[in-house]
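Justification of resources, computational component.

The compute hours requested in this renewal are based largely on the per-chain cost of generating structure records like the one below. Each record pairs the submitted sequence with a full structure-token output. That output is archived, and it is also reused by downstream analysis tasks.
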Amino acid sequence: MPTIDDVKAAADRIKGIAVRTPLLRNDVLDARLGAKAFVKAECLQRGGAFKMRGAANAISALAPDVRAKGVIAFSSGNHAIAVSTAAKHFGVPATIVMPADAPKIKLETTRSLGADVVTYDRVGESREEIGARLLREKGGTLIKPFDDPFVIAGQGTLGLEIAEEIGPDIVFVQASGGGLASGVSLALPNARVIVVEPEGHDDIARTLATGAIQQNPPGIRSICDGLLTDRMGDITFEIARKRFERVIIVSNDAVRRAMKFAFFNLKVVLEPSGAAALAAALEGGVDVTGQTVAIIASGGNVDAETFVTALAVQ
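The structure output for this chain reads:
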């Protein structure tokens, strides 16, 4: 199990690869929440999302001779971009398994970074099985999207950056497999952790309610394409049981309104998955009056059409 010491080691390891992102303040947001709110703008991270942190840490931690054989990953987009970017940094080959219906910008960006992209049907095929086959055929190392101690520790480095500037009472963080939320939980041990999932894809909420890992049925659709993992991981489950206080479910329209709010008030572009935590803070019904609140804006890789639709929402 990763610890805060692993997060600190990751911060040293990825220095110069990932960048430090700002905490954004806004009077309108403070007034809406009745709190001191700080938005961690990971949309400004290298590769456009927090995933750069975990991928860079996991690849950096490989022995040079192992790393030289290349890396393989499966991802709906941001992890793909992050692994491809980190692999390019180290000069090693990357093969990425991506759903055919991933946002065009994420597919194109991953290819532009020099990765070999293998697409699959999100409903009818298993990315894990495809990844296992590619490992047998090509060799290399699988960089998991979330259930890996080095990935979790890397994601947690954004929490360390938050802690160096503020001491949040509460943090809103989106979750799919739980790697980001787990890493943030380790880095901010004194903060209440509110996890956010998209409507219809609430496996973490059901997992915490039942005490056993729950799986989402195939075929569920949401504009939050980066939050559609089938189930959380074994490592992230153990952390979640101890640290996730509550799960907020957000609708597509709430996410669109958060994207619109971020654009007009924070002056940043967020993808739907990246805006989910902000949507929960704005509309999730959590009373944060008088508290210091951290909100993770986890990514900004959004197709123009999706973004225009968000700006038009009421």
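The chain is about 45% helix and 15% strand. The radius of gyration is 18 Å.
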